[in-house]
Amino acid sequence: MDLIAIKKYLRQRKIVPIQDLALHFRVDVDTVRPLLAVWISKGKVRKQVGDVSACKGCCQCDPDTIETYQWME
Question: Are 42 and 53 in contact (CB under 8 A)?
Fold first, then answer.
């Protein structure tokens, strides 16, 4: 997993919960966050907390704990 792999995945999926990113790349969410921070600092990714629109709708998560990332074109 590297910055380019995260870029491709986010561009493809548009809005992605951090848990999905971690599962896709088979790493812990704390491993993904620093790489996402690079893209955020460059203005390419936007972090959203509480956005359930990217969720699969199981309603088991507290909306305040849902952390999603969106690639900005």
Answer: no
- The total number of structural domains in the chain stands at 1
Give strand ranges (E) for 9-62: 15-17, 45-49
CB 3 within 8 A of CB 35: yes
pLDDT per residue as tens digits for the range 21-72: 999 999 999 999 999 999 999 999 999 887 655 555 555 555 555 789 999 9
Q: Among all chains, which residue has been given the structure tokens 């909306």?
A: 63
Residues 6 or more apart whose Cβ sits within 8 Å of residue 68: 15, 16, 17, 18, 47, 48, 49, 51, 53, 54
- 60: domain range? 3-71
